[in-house]
Amino acid sequence: MRQTSTVRVFSLVLLGVVTAVATSGCFFKRGARGDYALAPEARPLEVPPDLNLPNTSGSAPIPALASAAKPAAASAATVASSQSGFTVSGSRDDVFGKVGDALAGVEGLTIASRAQLLGSYDVAYEGSNFLVRVVATDAGAYVSAVDPRGMPATDAAATKLIATLKAKLVG
Questions:
Q1: Domain extents for the chain?
Q2: Residue 70 and residue 74: Cα distance in Å, rounded?
Q3: pLDDT tens digits, residue range 153-167?
Q4: What is the C-alpha to C-alpha distance for residues 9 and 143, in angstroms, rounded to an integer?
Q5: What is the pLDDT of residues 99-147, one digit of tens each?
Q6: Which helix (H) or strand (E) holds 105?
Q7: Hey, which CATH number is domain 78-169, 3.40.50.1580, 1.20.1250.20, 1.10.1240.10, 3.30.310.170?
Q8: Which pLDDT does position 68 carry in this prediction?
Q9: What is the DSSP string of 79-101?
Q10: In angstroms, what is the C-alpha Rg of the chain?
């Protein structure tokens, strides 16, 4: 009796080991297979090195920017931008504060909002709405009036306000 129970336990353990080995698949696993073993449709695409970038030898050169070109005669845009802005010596943040103080002293002007990070004041003056913008330049800070399209503001109210600010800040 002892022998049959030992044989029975041994055969159950052996059956468990064989089942575990057979289901794990460790005998069927082989080494890592490279891309060469895949079906041709599943292989990654190999692009020759000379086809990675387009050939630009016969292409046209990039034209110069219109803002980089210096026209011989002053255009209407140059005259308009000179009427809608001026340069003040000092850092942008200092000039921004001075412009805010000067705008507060202008009669009939309303500051709708101010954004120091952007360097701009949204103002309403004599029926016109525009931005007074302060931008850092090599010579200091450039104070200008900008219309809602982002172009220099050339209407009468903007040029009058810029002239007033120029008189207060530059002297």
A1: 2-42, 78-169
A2: 9
A3: 888 999 999 999 999
A4: 95
A5: 999 999 999 999 999 999 999 999 999 999 999 999 999 889 999 999 8
A6: none
A7: 3.30.310.170
A8: 59
A9: HHHHHSEEEESS-HHHHHHHHHH
A10: 39
- Alpha-carbon 162 to chain mean position: 31
Sheet with 120-125, side-by-side order of all strands: 85-88, 140-146, 128-137, 120-125, 109-115
Core vs surface per residue 90-129: b (16+ CB within 10 A) or e:
eebeebbebbeebbeebeebeeeebeeeebbbebebeebe
Quick: pLDDT tens for 14-57.
888 778 777 766 555 555 567 777 888 887 777 777 777 777 77
Distances (CA, A) of 90 to 120, 124, 132: 16, 26, 17
- Do 165 and 99 form a contact (C-beta atoms < 8 A)? yes
Instruction: Output the average pLDDT for the chain.
Output: 80
Number of neighbouring beta carbons within 10 Å of residue 81: 16
- Residue 127's H or E segment, with its range, is none
* Type of residue found at 98: K
